[in-house]
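Entry for the shared binder. Reason: the reviewer on the internal report wants the predicted structure included alongside the sequence.
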Amino acid sequence: MKPGDRVGIAALSGPVDPAALDTGLGELRRIGFEPVTATNLKSREGLFAGSDQERLEGFHRLVADESLSAVFFARGGHGLLRLLPRIDWDLLARRPRAYIGYSDVTPFLNQVVMRLGWVAFHGPMVAVDFARGLQAVEEVSLLGALVGEPQVIPSEGGSGEVVEGTILGGCLSLLTAVLETKYAVDLEDAVLFWEDVDEPVYRLDRMLTHLDLSGRLSAIKAMVVGCVEPADEHEAGETLRQRLDLLALEKGLSLAVGIPSGHCCPNLTLPIGAIARVDPPRGEVTFSLGKGVGAWA
């Protein structure tokens, strides 16, 4: 990608705040992109940015526009899961491009990796992160990721040995929502990234236990934990860290916690489907697009 590129703005989930959208579009222009908005971007029907059909048609029109180098999502919320079975993956496959978002976009990003063999980007959304104004470190992270530069992101702590694997994942609640469906993420030999906020620790523990019972935590090489802000008191955060340490020990996993990516500020961009090198002794995770892309395609 380069300055001046045309980029689509999609809305497959919740309704988009018009003021936040306008501010976010201005920020996109500031960093050098020309936004092209989906036809449903300012629509609203109940919980969603238009009906299922409106959201799907708006997205597919962007996908069919071969002049677009990327598609950013406007926001998360809820709604994309309803559309997964109706997305035209053959249409997507005709034009390789970057897709950028997080939260409710999680299942879509992992499907891009598994179905198409591309890297997708767990990164800022237009009516959320762009609307508040990107920090300099977020802008550098996003633009670097989009041109394929290696990303080195510090962690706040961790344990285990240095390991490498394809990084997959996203919002924990969405990863568990698709378990035992054909949209579940194949985590064999992967580095699992997850983040989530405003969830009490017991629900985070329940979701992790659900992943474990599904057999997926026994298949991964490492766990990288992004933004996690439990909805209960500070002590609960310490309880969660103890749970993660115990889980890593039981499963023989390398662990990195406190990666600034997801529902937080700064929200750094992670290339889902790229190779991640988890280095707990150095307290960092390195992402490279140089090999391994599409290992689960």
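Summary line for the report: The radius of gyration is 18 Å.
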